[in-house]
TrEMBL record:
<dbReference type="InterPro" id="IPR006678">
    <property type="entry name" value="tRNA_intron_Endonuc_N"/>
</dbReference>
<dbReference type="InterPro" id="IPR011856">
    <property type="entry name" value="tRNA_endonuc-like_dom_sf"/>
</dbReference>
<dbReference type="Pfam" id="PF01974">
    <property type="entry name" value="tRNA_int_endo"/>
</dbReference>
<dbReference type="InterPro" id="IPR036167">
    <property type="entry name" value="tRNA_intron_Endo_cat-like_sf"/>
</dbReference>
<comment type="similarity">
    <text>Belongs to the tRNA-intron endonuclease family.</text>
</comment>
<feature type="domain" description="tRNA intron endonuclease catalytic">
    <location>
        <begin position="121"/>
        <end position="202"/>
    </location>
</feature>
<dbReference type="InterPro" id="IPR006677">
    <property type="entry name" value="tRNA_intron_Endonuc_cat-like"/>
</dbReference>
<feature type="domain" description="tRNA intron endonuclease N-terminal">
    <location>
        <begin position="38"/>
        <end position="98"/>
    </location>
</feature>
<dbReference type="InterPro" id="IPR006676">
    <property type="entry name" value="tRNA_splic"/>
</dbReference>
<protein>
    <recommendedName>
        <fullName>tRNA-intron lyase</fullName>
        <ecNumber>4.6.1.16</ecNumber>
    </recommendedName>
</protein>
<dbReference type="Pfam" id="PF02778">
    <property type="entry name" value="tRNA_int_endo_N"/>
</dbReference>
Length: 230
């Protein structure tokens, strides 16, 4: 499926302003300001400066939130987004409710507690983000993420992403009728279903260092269809 750009000149704008460069600028800005976010339940809150608000928006990390504090702007990050900035890009510190900055292992354990599938979701998220895909929540389409080639203001999402793992996914899309319904839903909104199979290769999830030993296999719906159809 070819990218569906939004309007004349959208593709040229994306090529002139690559996502890799935008993320690099964001990384530099957060490092320079010694940015520190706060854990807040199932999300992470980040106080930002005006420049960082623009960069976070352009890089598609989180969403701005309105508060009563007129002199301070805040962004709400998802768990995968926050951990990516903290662990993979090393440009964000994250503190707990006690305002003490958490190390990578403590942060990992916190996020695993909030979502038992966090290790698989994060591996899938970082796998695509490192390839400069933009990921947003896919709940409205019944999937885990939707993936964009660039900023959603310039291009429609290309993939509807489902994360599969050996643990806890025994019945997910294993029945032909479920798989067929998901494909039809994706087709109705002009998206290709992309299943990311996360294999821990016999390693657990005690700390984020395990991520290096995980592998990811991406399978498109037309490939999976030939394997699954009776």
């Amino acid at each position: 499926m070819r990218p569906r750009w939004k309007g004349k000149g959208a593709e040229a704008k994306a090529l002139a302003d690559p996502m890799s460069e935008i993320v690099s600028q964001l990384q530099s800005s957060l490092l320079q300001s010694n940015a520190c976010a706060l854990l807040s339940g199932y999300s992470v809150l980040l106080p930002v400066e005006t420049e960082q608000t623009e960069l976070l928006t352009r890089a598609c990390f989180g969403k701005p939130i309105i508060t009563a504090e007129k002199d301070k702007q805040w962004f709400q990050l998802g768990l995968e987004e926050a951990f990516y900035l903290c662990y993979s890009l090393k440009c964000l510190k994250i503190a707990g409710e006690d305002n003490i900055v958490k190390n990578d292992v403590d942060l990992w354990l916190y996020m695993k507690l909030k979502n038992g599938k966090f290790p698989d979701f994060y591996k899938a998220y970082s796998h695509l983000r490192m390839k400069n895909w933009v990921l947003r929540p896919g709940l409205q389409y019944g999937v885990d993420f939707v993936a964009y080639r660039h900023h959603p203001s310039l291009v429609h999402s290309e993939y509807a992403v489902i994360v599969l793992s050996e643990e806890g996914d025994a019945g997910r899309l294993r029945v032909w009728s479920d798989f067929h319904c998901t494909i039809r839903l994706c087709g109705s909104v002009a998206k290709t279903l992309l299943m990311l199979n996360v294999d821990k290769n016999g390693h657990g999830a005690i700390s984020p260092s395990c991520l290096e030993r995980y592998s990811v296999e991406g399978v498109h719906n037309h490939e999976m269809e030939s394997r699954t159809k009776p």
